[in-house]
Amino acid sequence: MTKKPEAFDKFPVGLEERDVLPSSRKNVASRDHRPMLENLQRRFFLRQTLSLGAVAMLSGCNLQDGDTIDRILWAMSRWNDRAQAWLFGQNKLAPTYGPTDVTRPFPFNAFYPEDSVPDIDLSEYRLEVSGLVDNKRFWSLEDLRVLPQVSQITRHICIEGWSAIGEWSGVPLRSFLERIGADLTARYVGFKCADRYYTSLDMPTALHPQTILALDFDKGPLPAKYGYPLKLRVPTKLGFKNPKHIAAIFITNEYPGGYWEDQGYNWFSGL
After folding, report:
1. Do 204 and 144 lie in a common domain?
2. 12 exposure class (CB count in 10 Å sphere: 0-12, 13-18, 19+)
3. Among candidates 206, 236, 234, 230, which has minimal Cα distance to 216?
4. pLDDT averaged over the chain?
5. How many other CB atoms sit within 10 Å of the CB of residue 240?
6. How far is it, in rounded angstroms, from Cα 257 to Cα 235?
7. Which of 87, 109, 137 is the last residue of a domain?
8. In terms of Cα–Cα distance, which of 189, 181, 183 is closest to 212?
9. Range of the domain at 70
10. Strand, helix or coil at 82?
11. Tens digit of each residue's pLDDT (9 = 90 or more) over 53-101
12. Is residue 8 assigned to a domain?
């Protein structure tokens, strides 16, 4: 398992419970997208089945040896990450939609209940930038808002089997990375969040034209439950790769892992 960065000791504790998807939200996915969700579920099931099959076929492998099985499954997951990365294309865009397609109300989802959303004091908020960058500094929300922004209406697809369409506006991550002098040949961009969540992206996905640091949702400032004051919006990835309440961004060549990825979720998780 990947060790959590020591910086997480600085964030509030007590947010360990995962929010269970209420039955009222299980039908959020629109009919036109259910085939894609079903395909994602089939792919996940097939990947797990093939992995277990491969383990069973290994000569001399003791299936009661949990550590051995874990190592093999992790190795296969890493192979799957490499395959997805190889297939990823910067010119392939996620579908976009019109204002009438926006899902209202947009569902809340996190690894904690809605009443545990972090209360962030805007006057004290500063985004930390570190790692392989020329300009290591802290950014206020006002600093971010004066940067050129773009808007998108795209679909958020959750690994739990639901999807919803929303409108996000913010700073293209690529332009932000260029502005801070990030090493764009580095392998990873990592994110630490005020709710103790953490995840990371491969650099090609970070540079994708639809990957943005979202400041607004539905033509207004991000509500707290949707990631205030800063959320990563990545429509080419599953929902858990879209962290909320971002407190720090770092560039690295060392694998940073992620909250769910370190518990077995596929790291690349592309759509």
Report:
1. yes
2. exposed
3. 230
4. 80
5. 21
6. 20
7. 87
8. 189
9. 29-87
10. helix
11. 444 444 455 555 666 656 655 565 565 666 565 656 678 899 999 999 9
12. no
Using the 3D structure, point to which of 87, 120, 155 is the last residue of a domain.
Answer: 87
What does DSSP say about strands 246-252 and 127-131: parallel, antiparallel, or unpaired?
Answer: parallel
**Phi, psi dihedrals of residue 73, rounded to the nearest 5°:** -65, -40
Tens-place pLDDT, residues 171-188: 999 999 999 999 999 999
Q: Tally the domains of the chain.
A: 2
Give residue 121's identity as a one-letter amino acid code: D
H/E element, 96: none
Smallest Cα–Cα separation from 156: which of 19, 2, 36? 36
For 135-160, what is each residue's pLDDT tens digit?
Answer: 999 999 999 999 999 999 999 999 99
181 and 51 in a common domain: no
Q: Is residue 81 a part of any domain in this protein?
A: yes
What's the average model confidence in pLDDT over 249-269?
94
Q: Is residue 260 part of a domain?
A: yes
Instruction: Look up the pTM and report it.
Output: 0.74
What's the pLDDT tens digit per position in 13-40? 333 333 323 333 334 444 444 555 555 5
Same domain, 46 and 143: no
User: What does the alpha-carbon distance between residue 120 and residue 134 come to, in Å, rounded to a whole number?
Assistant: 28
